[in-house]
Amino acid sequence: MIRATTPHDDTAASPGRLDTPRAELGRVGDEAVGRARARSTSAVPDVETVVVGAGPHGLSTAIHLRRAGVAAHVLGDPMSFWRTMPAGMRLRSNMSATNMVEPVGPLSLASYMQATGEQLSQPVSLRHFIEYGSWVQRGGVPDLDTRKVTNLARSGGGFALDLSDGERLTARRVVVACGIAPFERLPAGFAHLPSELVSHTGRNADPAAFAGKRVAVVGGGQSAFESAVLMGERGAEVEVLVRRPEVTYLRGWSPIHFIGPLAHVVYAPTDVGPLWYSRLVATPALFTRLPRETQDKIAYRSTRPACSYFVKVRIDGIKVTLSTEVTGAEVTGHGLRLALSDGTSREVDHLTFGTGYKVDVARYSFLSDSVLRDLRVVDGYPVLRRGLESSVPGLHILGAPAARSFGPTMRFVSGSWYAGSHVAHAVAGRRLGRRAPGPG
Question: Nearest to residue 74, comparing CAs of 58, 88, 90, 89?
Fold first, then answer.
């Protein structure tokens, strides 16, 4: 169990007890919106910084910016991506790595449990994680603006953001923390099939909807196997099709449990990567000094497809077929007929892909041509420098798109600790005329 480090009085664990008081945090946002309306025709930006996205990375960055005295206006639907995940899912990360914003402090899991009376255990359920994220939002960003950004364009020395209600907001700086939903990876050749017959595991919020149906799940990682188990437990007939000859199953125990006092030294609380890489990938200042080829090798080893032990022990009754791919699918009167690489076929009611996500920052539909034209990108990833700032001055990009520049931890919730504090340090330092720190 994580131990809270805040004083044990009747207000210590309240989500309002931040380094900057809650009332002041709210006032930062309220004053920003007030200035936006008063200066709508002025060349001066309406707000200093806009954060687009209200998931772990967006909330963390907004909170760290405000703690550093930087006015941040936050746009987004809190925890929206996580609410599309299959009900009943559990997080693969350990308790420490499930913290948003900070591993210890007023917005940690320990403080949440103390404030609410909830006693969470590992693995943390999706429902509890969403509730925790909503608690973080209410305490750290109580003035959240839930409007969506429909277009982000360069304007003068800053940016203009068109919003879903038709209003335009201008900002000197923009932080994009919009998650991975637009990056769903589906194999080529299936886009023509109707969405009621083919889906990505990230869109199957209700596994019970597949009760009594024959479902083929493609993939060999956590999302594929957990989706298959959740569907099977709710009455579906499920087969998992894995193209690799074996599945990587994680152990139910970790070597760190036998290391004793040295465990926290050799294994980072971010919980990304195996024992011998964990501290390295948790420290971007070190990781990014490695040759590119080495970075890529370590990143793959730290994020390769694998199935947790708590899912493995529930696979009984789920058929798993290895070394097999779906080569084609056609609609029949009762669903789909799948052609497989081993020469066999399957008749199913639904086909779902647990094939992960492939970053392509251009798939953020709100990024205008003027932004994309000047955005330096390698293999879909924006090239980022200090403060996770892109080649477009004043535009910062967080989360999975930052993984190529700052390492695989950026793909996970625990990456929000580094991303939020690093952006805040860089932005606040510039306001005071100081040089921002490097990736570390």
Answer: 58
For residue 12, the one-letter residue type is A
What is the chain's alpha carbon radius of gyration, rounded to the nearest angstrom? 23
- Cβ–Cβ < 8 Å for 377, 428: no
Instruction: Please state which CATH class domain 22-182+358-431 belongs to.
Output: alpha beta
CA–CA separation, 82 vs 100, rounded Å? 14
CA gap 66, 24 in Å, rounded = 9
pLDDT confidence of residue 431: 63
Q: 308, 65, 27: which is closest to 143 by C-alpha?
A: 27
Asked if 48 and 173 count as a contact pair (C-beta separation under 8 A), the reply is yes
Distance CA 328, CA 341 (A): 9
CB atoms within 10 A of CB 238: 26
Long-range pairs of 430-434 with CB within 8 A, sequence gap ≥ 24: 431/70
- Do β-strands 335-340 and 326-332 pair in parallel, antiparallel, or remain unpaired? antiparallel
Compute the Cα dihedral for 130, 131, 132, 138 and give only its sign. positive
Rounded Cα distance between 141 and 189, Å, is: 43
Nearest to 61 by CA among 388, 301, 375, 279: 388
Global confidence as pTM:
0.86
| Average pLDDT over every residue of 183-192 | 90
The residues pairing with 328 across neighbouring beta strands, listed in sequence order, are: 339
For residue 319, give both structure tokens.
């058929």
Residue 390 to residue 69: CA distance in whole angstroms? 22
Domain boundaries, the chain: 22-182+358-431, 185-248+306-353
Fold of 185-248+306-353: FAD/NAD(P)-binding domain (3.50.50)
Q: Note whether 22-182+358-431 and 185-248+306-353 share their fold.
A: yes
Higher pLDDT: 139 or 19? It is 139
pLDDT tens-digit map of 133-147: 999 999 999 999 999
